[in-house]
Design a protein that fits this description.
Elements lengths: L1 H11 L12 H18 L1 H36 L3 E6 L5 H12 L4 E7 L1 H11 L17 E7 L6 H11 L7 E3 L2 H42 L2 H9 L4 H37 L18 H23 L6
Antiparallel strand pairs: 1-3, 1-4, 2-3
C-alpha cells in the first residue's frame, strides 16, 4: 500500500529534467559547438557550397583591397615628389642658410629643407643628361642658381595645402622666387581624388554584392533543413536552443571561408611576384608591391565571421517564430 502511494505521489509531481553537465554555460556552449560540428558533417555538400561562396566573395574583395592598397602606396610615393623650390641668384653664407632654414621649417607643412649649391645643381644637371655630357662643355657652375628644396608633409601635399604653404613661404624676408609646379600638383591631386572616389564606389558595390550573395547562400542551406527546424519547434525547444548551433555553424563557415580566401590570396600574390617578369617590363617586388597589412587581414577574417553569423541569424528568422 505504501509503495503504491509513493508511485502515485511521484506520478502527480511535475516532470523535472535531470541536471546535465551541459546545463552550465560552458557545458551548454560545448554542446552547441559539438551539435554545429555534427551538422557540418551531416550536411557536407551544402556547407562546402556555403564555404566556397564565402571564400570566392571575400577573395574578390581581398583582391580589390590589395590593388587599392598598392595604388595608395604608389600615390604616396609619387606625392613625395611634390616639393617647393626657392631660388637665389647668389651663394648664401652659412649664417644666411641657417637663418632661412629655421624660418622655413617653422612654417606648418615643412618636412625637410635641403640647400642646393651651384656645384650640386650642375652635378644634377649633368646626371640628367647622361650620355650627352658634351652639351655642357664650357658650362660653369656660376651660371646656375642656388636653391632650397623643401619637401612637404603628407598632410600638406594637396593643392590647398601647397598653396597655403607657398603663401606663407613668400612672407619670409629674403625669399622672392618660388616654384612648385602648380599645374602638375593640381593634376596629380585631381587624379588621386578621382581614384579614391572610384575605389570607394567599387568597394561599396562589392561589399553589398558579397553580403547579398552570402546571405542568400546561407538562406538556401537553412531552407534545405527547414523540416529539422520545424520539428525542434514542435517538441518545445526554445528559440535560442534552436538557433545556437546554426549560428555557430555560420561562424565556422565564415571563418573557414575567410581563411581560405586569405590562403588563396597569398598564393596568387606569390605566384604573381614569381611570374610577373614574364609579362611585365619591370620586377614588381623591388618597386614596392606589398601584401595586405595585418590589420586588413584581420578585418577580412572578422568580416567572414560576421557574414556567417549575420547570414545565419537573418535566415533563421524566416523559419523560427518569435
Amino acid at each position: 500500500m505504501n509503495s503504491w502511494k509513493k508511485k502515485k505521489t511521484a506520478a502527480c509531481q511535475p516532470y523535472k529534467r535531470p541536471t546535465l553537465s551541459g546545463d552550465r554555460f560552458g557545458g551548454r556552449f560545448g554542446y552547441f559547438v559539438s551539435r554545429a560540428l555534427i551538422n557540418v558533417r551531416q550536411n557536407m555538400f551544402v556547407n562546402v557550397v556555403t564555404v566556397g561562396t564565402i571564400t570566392l566573395a571575400l577573395l574578390i574583395v581581398s583582391l580589390f583591397l590589395l590593388v587599392f592598397v598598392n595604388l595608395e602606396n604608389a600615390a604616396e610615393n609619387w606625392s613625395e615628389r611634390v616639393q617647393v623650390t626657392v631660388y637665389f641668384d647668389r651663394d648664401l653664407t652659412a649664417q644666411e642658410q641657417a637663418a632661412l632654414r629655421t624660418r622655413i621649417t617653422a612654417i606648418p607643412g615643412a618636412a625637410r629643407v635641403s640647400y642646393i649649391s651651384r656645384e650640386e645643381a650642375l652635378k644634377r644637371f649633368k646626371g640628367r643628361l647622361r650620355g650627352q655630357e658634351t652639351l655642357l662643355e664650357g658650362v660653369r657652375p656660376e651660371i646656375l642658381p642656388t636653391s632650397f628644396e623643401i619637401a612637404l608633409k603628407s598632410s600638406s601635399r594637396d593643392t590647398p595645402g601647397v598653396e597655403a604653404f607657398v603663401s606663407n613661404l613668400k612672407r619670409v624676408p629674403g625669399i622672392n622666387e618660388v616654384q612648385y609646379g602648380e599645374e602638375w600638383v593640381r593634376r596629380f591631386n585631381t587624379f588621386l581624388n578621382f581614384m579614391r572616389m572610384l575605389g570607394a564606389l567599387l568597394g561599396s558595390f562589392l561589399v553589398i554584392a558579397v553580403v547579398f550573395i552570402v546571405s542568400n547562400t546561407i538562406k538556401l542551406t537553412i531552407y534545405a533543413r527547414r523540416d529539422e527546424l520545424e520539428v525542434m519547434s514542435l517538441v518545445g525547444a526554445t528559440r535560442f536552443f534552436i538557433q545556437a548551433p546554426f549560428l555557430i555553424e555560420g561562424v565556422i563557415q565564415g571563418a573557414l571561408g575567410a581563411l581560405l580566401s586569405m590562403a588563396l590570396l597569398v598564393g596568387m600574390y606569390q605566384a604573381f611576384l614569381h611570374n610577373a617578369g614574364n609579362f611585365l617590363t619591370f620586377n614588381p617586388a623591388p618597386s614596392g608591391l606589398a601584401f595586405l597589412p595585418m590589420e586588413y587581414v584581420g578585418g577580412i577574417v572578422l568580416a567572414g565571421i560576421l557574414l556567417g553569423f549575420i547570414g545565419s541569424l537573418t535566415s533563421l528568422k524566416r523559419f523560427i517564430n518569435a
